[in-house]
Design brief:
By secondary structure, the chain is an alpha/beta fold. The chain contains 37 helices and 33 strands. A hairpin with a 2-residue loop joins strand 2 and strand 3. 56% of the residues are buried. Bound molecules: iron/sulfur cluster (SF4). Iron/sulfur cluster binds next to helix 4.
């Protein structure tokens, strides 16, 4: 046996250690063996260089503040320290210095997730795009040639000049995605598009994040409180969300609120990762949530538990509706040339029909009737009218507890007690994230959920309010994209002055700030600066062959969806650019991954791709869309540029920045620099080729040969000035106090104001420094009208399509059988191990799962089909098929299969991604328009895609 120079053998050591344990266990302090080793504990180990390796991990040259600024959506964003050594990020660590809002509330620390913790591995991994690439094989074949930046930009600029000059700028579209920032990245992109008069495709409804139900009811899809607001809730309903997966940095507030007495109730078909922490789980049949809500509304109304004052003041429930036409009684019914947007109530005090105030929600002396039937003399003769609440009561008769129980699978006593508990609670709020709007009837489901909360007045108080799309946004750069070529301060002032001039008539017509903001958005949509993605894919991308088949699967439809699309486009309710009949030619991808993202993407490859003469992707990693592009330009990663997302969800009210911790890797450049260089190249080539001008969509002449000068605000900011752009634009932000210097050192600043941008303003609240964010208080406390046609939360929608489909009020409709009559329904959601496709093929994240795409299925369904856990199965329906590994999980409901999203095509056999068989039928009510608030603007109120109703069969592959 080897003797060491201290005279001890390994056996002696073990004996000594055992003795030490023994003596300690005997409670004595005489630790004889340990005494010896304490003198020279490491002497037996001569090879000690490993210690250096370990110790040197904890040394660095500098630390920079970073975040992953654009990819996390509901959970966005978190401040991190990046540790840099020899020009390399060696690791990242959560900053974790966010403050508490109030002493009795939990704080926001530590924000972060496991994806962020390994971003530095992602940025250096082999998926990284190192230099400009040009396709040399067929699109998607994966054959590339390396180009210099100058070669790539010259070729791209020449093609753009030719196409835009010859076919018009509306043939050039930009697809953006969840990786889009409103920092320098977004500014460069939006400014290039506005100057070329081309369109930015609006992916939000197409993703299914558009909260159509809330937008129809409230006038915009936005509205949310902060996560610490849940501490004041008596009940939080996690109704169709899974924040343990999708809201890792803030979901702790939910579980901590329970210690403050909050009851957290999960309503979902499967026993998911969030439900396991809830006080109560209500398992519900897939897609039947509207029936549950209507059942509860029925109990609340029948038992008189509703909040009369609230619904009289804040909702359209007292507004009179004609029995004959089912339309609101309007001024135009009472007099020639009367207004279309002036409605009436029956005043119980004066016993007469009265016009409620328009400029405020305060009813003053009026006491509107919620019930009764009245006769009115109109210009067409006498008609019967009743308050909308009466019509609602009629509808609720269809929702007996027994019927609701049959539809939902929930016991009637549970429905009844839940309804009573919600009605009697002081404060109730919800967490849905963006699950609901991915259902075909998601608009109805959401409208019914909101109805339950509104009936009980759960708005405007701490701990209450419907949480819809969560967004606080500093949209300064979005406005600057339209501003004249001056330094930012002057440019913004000039833009604001010109916009104020354009809308001064509307202001005099009692438009609120919210209404004005949305008007700006609607004008952008009308002029094709923003374009509905879903309609674009439908008209130009071949998706009409799939999503146009709604009537086959939705038993309630009487007309083909194509008729609704044509009617909507003809009437100008919705728009698409280029207009039908003209082909798109150029598609740029920046911040998105359209080929991975779109349900039924195979149609795009078949129909749209051949029409496109130029497809360019700007990205830092090679994803499915890059693989199908003509050129791929390497963009800098999150830690390689100065940037900020410009938005967060109010769940966490902090604005974060990322900074250039290291120089852009390989030959990559920031998107700001790429857009400037592209504009510069277009300007240069236009001069060299003497193609100086083009006609915009209005037929007015614009110039190619000053594009760079204008884009850079009269060369006040060059391609190298990304930091200056950050500094000067943040100095103009109305949303917080914190200049770039402070943010660069600190990483974050607290949000102080919702601003006037058409995304953030929907929160309709004043942010108070020592209070959680409580949405909608402008309406409930300040009595500012809601931005809807009725100027109230509007549950009755008498727009033509709604009336035709019997959806003027919220109701339940059976889900469609999208894809054919098959026994299993696909659901999904954001995954725990990736945010969109960003980390889907990342080695660390794959190690935490099965390393390849999986589909969860119930034990019962697996047994019935002879499928064992881990086996590869074939999933099919009338549209297509694909293969995937089955994960048999007792948490899944029989009849349900779950595929969490964002796998890339190349992770499947034959590159057949699971979205190939999702037809995503269009719902006609989402094509509505011509109805004040029912008109599209960026992110909302245009048709969305759905995937949650897809039907499939699964078989074992022998
Ligand atoms: S990936 Fe998103 S949620 Fe995760 S740490 Fe980064 S910013 Fe936070």
């Amino acid at each position: 046996m080897e003797k060491k120079d201290n005279g001890f053998t390994r056996r002696d050591f073990i004996k000594g250690a055992s003795f030490g344990v023994l003596t300690l266990s005997l409670g004595t302090l005489r630790f004889k063996g340990g005494e010896v080793f304490a003198q020279e504990p490491l002497k037996p180990y001569p090879y000690r260089t490993w210690e250096d390796l370990y110790k040197k991990q904890w040394t660095w040259d500098k630390v920079a503040k970073v975040t992953h600024p654009r990819n996390c959506w509901y959970q966005a964003h978190c401040s991190w320290d990046a540790f840099i050594k020899n020009g390399i990020i060696v690791r990242e660590e959560q900053t974790a210095d966010y403050p508490q809002t109030r002493p009795e509330l939990s704080d926001f620390n530590p924000r972060g997730c496991q994806k962020g913790a390994c971003y530095s591995a992602r940025m250096y991994d082999p998926t990284r795009i190192k230099y400009p690439l040009k396709r040399v094989g067929e699109r998607g074949e994966g054959k590339w040639k390396r180009l210099s930046w100058d070669e790539a930009l010259t070729e791209i600029a020449d093609t753009m000049i030719d196409i835009i000059a010859k076919e018009g700028p509306d043939t050039f579209l930009y697809d953006v995605g969840t990786n889009l920032s409103l920092g320098p990245q977004g500014l460069g992109l939006f400014r290039l598009c506005t100057l070329l008069d081309s369109g930015v495709l609006d992916c939000n409804p197409e993703i299914g994040d558009d909260h159509q139900g809330w937008a129809v009811t409230s006038g915009s899809m936005i509205g949310c409180g902060s996560a610490d607001n849940w501490f004041y809730s008596d009940i939080v309903l996690i109704w169709a969300g899974n924040p343990s997966y999708t809201g890792m940095p803030y979901s702790h507030f939910l579980w901590e609120a329970r210690y403050n007495g909050t009851r957290v109730i999960g309503i979902s078909p499967d026993y998911n990762a969030s439900v396991i922490h809830c006080d109560q789980w209500i398992p519900i049949n897939i897609g039947t949530d509207a029936a549950l809500a209507m059942g509860m509304a029925q109990v609340i109304v029948k038992e008189g538990l509703y909040n009369k004052e609230f619904i009289k003041e804040q909702t359209d429930m007292p507004f009179l509706v004609r029995d004959d036409t089912k339309q609101f009684l309007r001024e135009k019914d009472l007099k020639e040339n009367g207004r279309d947007d002036l409605f009436y109530i029956f005043d119980l005090k004066s016993q007469g029909i009265k016009e409620p105030p328009r400029a405020t929600l305060t009813l003053g002396d009026l006491d509107p009737a919620l019930e009764g039937s009245f006769e009115v003399e109109t210009i067409q003769g006498k008609v019967k009218v009743r308050p909308a609440f009466e019509f609602l009561k009629d509808k609720l008769k269809d929702y007996s507890l027994d019927r609701v129980s049959q539809i939902t699978g929930i016991n009637p006593t549970i429905i009844e007690s839940l309804a009573r508990d919600i009605a009697k609670a002081r404060t109730v709020t919800n967490v849905t994230n963006s699950c609901i709007s991915k259902f075909y009837h998601g608009d109805l489901i959401e409208r019914t959920q909101i109805l339950v909360l509104a009936l009980c007045g759960h708005f405007g108080k701490k701990g209450s309010g419907f949480n819809a799309f969560p967004m606080l946004i500093d949209d300064t750069n979005f406005r600057l994209a339209f501003a004249p070529p001056l330094p930012f301060k002057e440019a913004l002032a000039a833009f604001e002055k010109s916009f104020a001039e354009q809308v001064k008539d509307l202001k005099q017509a009692d438009y609120t700030d919210e209404m004005l903001s949305y008007e700006f958005g609607r004008r952008l949509e009308k002029t094709g600066i923003t374009v509905s993605n879903t309609l674009f894919w439908y008209v130009h991308g071949g998706l009409n062959e799939l999503s146009g088949r709604s009537k086959e699967w939705d038993k309630y439809l009487k007309r083909d969806v194509d008729e609704y699309v044509k009617e909507s486009l003809e009437k100008g309710w919705q728009n698409v650019f280029p207009a039908p009949g003209k082909e798109p030619r150029i598609l740029f991808e920046c911040g998105g991954n359209v080929i991975r993202r779109v349900r039924g993407y195979t149609a795009l490859l078949k129909t749209l791709w051949p029409k496109l003469h130029l497809i360019v992707t700007l990205d830092f990693r090679m994803g499915a869309t890059g693989l199908h592009s003509d050129y791929v330009l390497p963009a800098a990663g999150y830690y390689e540029k100065d940037d900020f997302a410009g938005w967060v969800g109010p769940y966490q009210p902090f604005f974060q920045v990322t900074t250039r911790a290291v120089e852009p890797l390989h030959e990559s450049k920031s998107e700001w620099e790429i857009h400037c260089l592209l504009a510069k190249k277009i300007q240069e080539r236009a001069k060299q080729r003497n193609i100086l001008t083009f006609k915009d969509k209005q037929g007015k002449e614009r110039r190619f040969d000053n594009l760079y000068d204008i884009l850079t605000y009269g060369r006040h900011y060059t391609e190298k000035d990304e930091e200056k752009v950050c500094r000067d634009s943040l100095a103009l932000s109305p949303c917080f106090k914190g200049d770039w210097k402070h943010l660069k050192e600190k990483g974050w600043v607290k949000w102080e104001d919702i601003g006037k941008g058409f995304f953030g303003i929907g929160n309709a609240t004043d942010i108070k420094p020592d209070e959680p964010i409580v949405p909608y208080t402008w309406h409930t406390d300040k009595k500012v009208p809601w931005p809807t046609l009725s100027r109230r939360m509007q549950f009755y929608i008498d727009q033509d399509f709604y009336l035709e489909l019997g959806e003027e009020l919220p109701i339940h409709k059976d889900p469609p059988i999208s894809g054919g009559n098959y026994p299993l329904t696909v659901t999904g959601g954001h995954t725990r191990w990736s945010i969109h496709s960003m980390w889907r093929d990342e080695a660390h994240m794959l190690r935490l799962q099965r390393g390849q795409p999986v589909m969860y299925m119930s034990v019962a369904d697996a047994q019935k089909r002879g499928i064992k856990d881990g086996e590869i199965v074939l999933v099919k329906n009338d549209i297509d098929s694909f293969e995937i590994m089955a994960k048999v999980a007792p948490a899944i409901r029989p009849g349900q299969v779950v595929i969490y999203h964002a796998w890339e095509q190349y992770q499947f056999k034959g590159h057949k991604l699971f979205q190939n068989l999702m037809p995503s039928p269009i719902k006609p009510t989402e094509l509505a328009g011509g109805y004040f608030h029912l008109g599209p603007f960026f992110g909302q109120l245009s048709p969305g895609q759905s995937d949650r109703d897809t039907r499939v069969e699964v078989t074992r592959i022998a």
